């Protein structure tokens, strides 16, 4: 009888424990359902906000005149709005002079600018989950121009693109300018850097944003930009990568990866405007395409995501202007932090939408709760 009584008590206690567990699980499940309902509403609100934001800029305006300092500041700096300029008044002497390669060879023969070198078969910065910095060399511009003309025999590609490198190009000072006059007047100070870049079609950037205003001025060739507004900050993912640098082997004609013992947050190479637009969750994030020809310019405000591809034999001026602190900076930071509460994955399935992601998350959390209950009991 004692044995039967003991079994009865054990069964009773087990039933009570199971009932408590299920009541607890039901409560946890209810909380999670409510939480995801709220998150779904939050995501819906953010999607609507993104749509209204991009409706505000249906396309990138192309000005047929050079703006005044007042027009630039009030129409573009304050609203954080990009624009392009296409008019003869905007042309620099370099646009006509640099059409002739022999003119550049004569002007740049004795110069030794800083040159970035990357293997021709590894143009993207992310290689095997590593962020690859280019090898830095000192080369004569004359040699770089010759290498750029070797379209089929190249094993590596070269481009000159170093911060604030215009002082290295004093022989061509009369062909270009050190700042954008009306921008300097409007912002009350000159650029923090002025760069001359030259490279071939292998020279491009993946999607990124800068903390300063950018002016791009094409002198030769062409460059096509894709822009995404800063509102996308709340949904564009980034990953942390270890930094390495390409180094040409001294014994073999191959590049090796040198560990820099640093890390960097970077947008993965697979995240491109087309990916975002096909994605159910991100489809309201509109991208803009702008192609800049010789003599034309493009203003990209700080925090705008952009990438570019260019033609062979492309020469571009790039000016960086420091931005004044305003409400936009904490606002975009707030959006990105807000979305970290529950960010849909873009690394496994770029076609997933919000509801599917939430349902999967709910199922996973439900299974986790059941597993915890089982291990505890």
UniProtKB/TrEMBL annotation:
Spans through the membrane: none
A Pfam match: Cupin_8
Annotated JmjC domain residues: 158-338
Domain of life where this protein originates: Eukaryota
Recorded coiled-coil stretches: none
PROSITE patterns for the chain: JMJC
PANTHER family to which the protein is assigned, alphabetical: BIFUNCTIONAL PEPTIDASE AND (3S)-LYSYL HYDROXYLASE JMJD7, HYPOXIA-INDUCIBLE FACTOR 1 ALPHA INHIBITOR-RELATED
Listed name of the protein: JmjC domain-containing protein
Organism: Larinioides sclopetarius
């Amino acid at each position: 009888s004692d044995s039967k009584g003991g079994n009865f008590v054990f069964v009773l206690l087990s039933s009570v424990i199971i009932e408590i567990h299920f009541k607890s699980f039901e409560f946890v499940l209810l909380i999670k359902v409510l939480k995801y309902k709220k998150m779904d509403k939050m995501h819906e609100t953010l999607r609507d906000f993104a749509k209204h934001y991009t409706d505000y800029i249906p396309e990138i305006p192309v000005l047929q005149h050079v703006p005044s300092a007042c027009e630039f500041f009030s129409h573009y700096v304050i609203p954080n709005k990009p624009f392009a300029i296409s008019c003869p008044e905007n042309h620099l002497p370099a646009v006509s002079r640099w059409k002739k390669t022999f003119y550049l060879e004569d002007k740049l023969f004795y110069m030794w600018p800083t040159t970035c070198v990357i293997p021709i078969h590894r143009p993207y910065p992310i290689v095997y989950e590593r962020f690859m910095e280019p090898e830095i060399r000192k080369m004569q511009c004359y040699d770089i121009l010759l290498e750029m003309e070797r379209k089929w025999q190249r094993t590596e590609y070269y481009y000159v693109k170093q911060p604030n490198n215009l002082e290295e190009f004093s022989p061509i000072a009369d062909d270009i300018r050190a700042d954008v006059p009306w921008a300097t007047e409007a912002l009350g100070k000159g650029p923090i850097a002025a760069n001359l870049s030259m490279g071939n079609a292998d020279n491009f950037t993946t999607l990124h944003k800068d903390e300063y205003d950018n002016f791009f001025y094409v002198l030769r060739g062409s460059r096509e930009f894709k822009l995404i507004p800063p509102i996308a900050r709340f949904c564009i993912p980034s990953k942390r990568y270890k930094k390495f640098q390409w180094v040409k082997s001294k014994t073999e004609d191959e590049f090796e990866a040198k560990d820099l013992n640093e890390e960097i947050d970077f947008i993965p190479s697979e995240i491109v405007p087309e990916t975002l637009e096909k994605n159910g969750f991100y489809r309201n994030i509109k991208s803009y395409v702008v192609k800049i020809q010789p003599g034309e310019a493009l203003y990209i405000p700080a925090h705008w995501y952009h990438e570019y591809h260019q033609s062979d034999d492309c020469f571009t001026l790039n000016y960086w202007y420091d931005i004044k602190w305003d409400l936009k900076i904490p606002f975009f930071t707030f959006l990105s932090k807000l979305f970290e509460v529950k960010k849909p994955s873009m690394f496994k399935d770029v076609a997933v939408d919000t509801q599917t992601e939430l349902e999967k998350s709910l199922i996973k959390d439900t299974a986790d709760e059941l597993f915890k209950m089982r291990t505890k009991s």
